[in-house]
Amino acid sequence: MAIPVETFFLAPDAEGTLQAQIRQMIAQGILSGRFRKGEKLPSSRRLAAHLGVSRITVTLALTELQASDYLESRDRSGYYVSENAPEPPAFADPAPRRETVDWARALGRRYSDGDTPEKPLDWARYPYPFIYGQTDPQLFDHANWRQCALRALGARDFHALSADHYDRDDPSLVEFIARHILPRRGILAQPSEILITMGAQNALWLAAQVLLTQRRTAVIENPCYHALRDILTQSRCHLHAIDVDRDGLPPEALPRHADVIFTTPSHQSPTNATMPLDRRRALLARAADREALIVEDDYEFEMAFLHPPLPALKSLDTEGRVIYVGSFSKSVFPGLRLGYLVGSKPFIREARALRASVLRHPPGLMQRTAAYFLSLGHYDSLIRRTARVFAGRREVMEAALAAHGLDIAGRGAFGGSSIWMQAPDDVDTTTLDTRLRAQGVLIEPGAPFFHGPDRPRNFYRLAYSSIPSGRIVEGIARLARELDSGPGHGADRPC
Amino acid sequence: MAIPVETFFLAPDAEGTLQAQIRQMIAQGILSGRFRKGEKLPSSRRLAAHLGVSRITVTLALTELQASDYLESRDRSGYYVSENAPEPPAFADPAPRRETVDWARALGRRYSDGDTPEKPLDWARYPYPFIYGQTDPQLFDHANWRQCALRALGARDFHALSADHYDRDDPSLVEFIARHILPRRGILAQPSEILITMGAQNALWLAAQVLLTQRRTAVIENPCYHALRDILTQSRCHLHAIDVDRDGLPPEALPRHADVIFTTPSHQSPTNATMPLDRRRALLARAADREALIVEDDYEFEMAFLHPPLPALKSLDTEGRVIYVGSFSKSVFPGLRLGYLVGSKPFIREARALRASVLRHPPGLMQRTAAYFLSLGHYDSLIRRTARVFAGRREVMEAALAAHGLDIAGRGAFGGSSIWMQAPDDVDTTTLDTRLRAQGVLIEPGAPFFHGPDRPRNFYRLAYSSIPSGRIVEGIARLARELDSGPGHGADRPC
């Protein structure tokens, strides 16, 4: 690779002769690892023109660097970083600055102390990854996705996609959502009631910023999606957590004062509870009574392979009270970062303005590619194929769990991609997770989902979205063995 | 196109017989425009299984819909929406809800009343678009961009890109920025001091959220980038605007108390002023004196075709006081939505956590495609080609402006893509813009860049980034003519 001439720079306050400055600049580039062995330098003519010095000065500097083995010249083609050049330290700190800024004081707000746990990025290396929310590369229709991207990258679309869209979305994606996705949930919406977001996370974040203030109260489910709790904590509203039961959020437990209720009625996160129709109606009535809004996170509704799902809460809403959050992260792939908000126009207008201020718009290429993938039917095929495979895996998993007598805390009436599990009371599933990793098994500890200081530590989530059917039995067996041998259950307890 | 079976839904509280409900559901789908003429319905067998009703019920409903001309059957291949079906209204409002939510009360915060003006999305239809910040499709290297995207879409990269990255960036993109982009600005940074953002806008937004509170003071340049002012207004910090002069922000005008200074030293936005080295040092010293941080927006540094640019303010910073904002929106294309923040680790840690909460991460595909485009040298070729063309256009533009005696208020010592113009005092350039549009000329009125109630109305920006050289002379001629005939200058003044 050739090193671009623009990379070369003489510090305006450097000392020494020009020739020495050039030598030093190139040697430092090599020592800092920026210029690598075998890379070609610009010609002395170009370098001289770029730096605004005479060519002879550059030539003399290069010759000296050659003499000291930083550079080597190859006949007629110029100078290269020498194979014998001094070794750079492995991308070492460039001359450490004396940082005098007092960051404890300078930071206006902190965001890094949230509840959302780190998940292992190398999960695919574990043989038994009961990890949630990741793609199974075996299931994804990569060939057709690539075709759709190619089409979106074509000259015809390119102009539209490369432009600055300010605050607008891809009309073909919005139309497909309005015509073909939302009706599956019983929702009829206008394009102006839909906003494309960077995934469900971004949709929840936007809703929280538009609807909440420090004086307002948000109701959340307990347990709930930890990233949602981080979002609400950051918004500094009052948080009121309500314990869910087997039917999800109990409406009668709503506090007298509530401004926004965040709920996952189709498929409670993480317990998988499905809220019955009567309770949905009761929730809407109680929300109306309090003049509260409801943000409905309808994640994973596509994975209803056991029964057709109940229509969304939003479909029962005649007052504009429900704001609906949908996502393609689970049904297509998480790295796509595309989701959507559906709500009344005054709400969508503010969410759109905020989105424009924060990031303008999700990249046009991703939106158009998704629009092609959806409208050409690949999305429906993918969902059907995935649902079929998940149904099979779930059967294997339920049988294995039953065989080992492991307690299921919530399984989801319609399907889904995970089972919510309860270990004996004295088991800390965070410790269990650590011990299991050593045996190639990944589970998701439940504590981060719970609110407040006294979090139950014996719940965990087992997903079957990323583990092949054939590995489930052995994975569950290892889990059962570890539970048996753990604190309170085995002879060889560690403490 | 076939209508997916999942789109069909019986409302749980619908009245009438099942057969009537099915009829009504399909008819409504057609009347609302969701099902379109010629689209194929699922087979009666699939529809029956999906709805959980008997096949004969479905068949009877479909037969009746055929009789009433909603559907037509084609031999052996099933039912289609009839070509004679009743016309849907043009995506009309679905049965208007009686919205009872009081949105004036329900919205916690408003974001839609910012200063950022709407720009015409159809600017490419204007023959004389002196519009700023849009791509010129003639200049962009579409073929190589597509190649890079194809490579990023390959099976090998796909797994990495489809995964949920939580809060991480593409390492190859970060490394290229550290090794090859930042050194051009005299900046040496570690990968851990770099955060990829959704463009410069997102970078400025993140910096504002991390560094400012309602009790802190942000200093901005006057005039400045209007979207930055929107971001700061939303953050509700105190705003202190300082008038820039021919050398940009004058450090001696800094208020005694300042927490964060937002500045564009290389290329003041929108006046194009370049801050001299002495003033940069003075600014750093005064910021240190006040323990203030500086956010340096180094937009458009690549377009330095007249002289090599001065090194960035960040390169003079030995204390960690400067946070640097870079972007590929101007140098690649705006729809890419990729930029970066460079700063001390404590700052980057908080900005990364906030980004994760707001949107997780910029899509992997965009990051990897950009990494290939940069590392294969296409970026450098693109910049050189663009700079050459811009240099030519600028020459034509300056000659045309001189020929008509139009006043240049700021032209940028190093290059850039626009010229900051001053019309006579009594000209309102917003009105001028409206009048010019009728003649196919697009200019950018200057008022939205200014702060406070008494905004000068006679400035405007003329960019040469999207107008071909051959059209500049005529475009400037029309502008000059309109200025001559406008209020205060012609016989035929409108009032």
Automatic annotation (TrEMBL), chains A, B:
One of its GO terms (molecular function) is transaminase activity. Residues 16-84 form the HTH gntR-type domain. The keyword Transcription applies. The keyword Transcription regulation applies. Keywords: Aminotransferase, DNA-binding, Pyridoxal phosphate, Transcription, Transcription regulation, Transferase. In the C-terminal section; belongs to the class-I pyridoxal-phosphate-dependent aminotransferase family. PANTHER family: HTH-TYPE TRANSCRIPTIONAL REGULATORY PROTEIN GABR. This is PLP-dependent aminotransferase family protein.
